[in-house]
Sequence to fold (215 residues):
Amino acid sequence: MSHPIIAPSILAADFANLEKEIKMVNESDADWFHLDVMDGVFVPNISFGMPVIEAISRHAKKPLDVHLMIVQPERYVKDFALLGADVLTVHYEASTHLHRTLQAIKAEGMKAGVALNPHTNVSVLKDTLQDIDLVCMMSVNPGFGGQSFIKNTYTKVKELKKMIEEQGASTQIEIDGGVTNKNAAQLVDAGADVLVAGSFVFKADDPKAAIKSLK
Fold:
């Protein structure tokens, strides 16, 4: 079994000690920083915006994986490129002209990601898969951290992996929501490449050990 990419979700970090939390991730076995941007419209919560990401970018020594849970994400593609995003993910459900948005993300030198809500079938990505670098599979309903993992995710990951292989695409599969060391191995076996973990990492007594256990 290959080692997955681990992307701790900063949404679960202690924002009063953000620099310390970033330093912990820098020094850990984690590979990416996962940053959830929520607008209170597409999801029923507001997280953080550009000033916070700019601050994180100054201290982060690993790639920034930015997940936009916002309406009309295409309006901000250039802004997030300037902030230092390495991967920019938009929601299928929030993107009327998905192909155009993917092209715009790539034109700015970022990897293009598409997120799918739990109710959205993976088949909707069949015609754009060749243009997608990363599919972020929501394994909880987006908007809040600390939710329980939805078990149907395993089936969706297998279906998506089969589609990727059939098309000969190089798309990575990311799992976001309720990821712990209890389901990490099963997710990787199903075809996941990237594991996002928030509460499991930042609420742990030893966050570095929690990251290592996922790896």
Q: What stands out?
A: The first helix runs from residue 18 to 27.
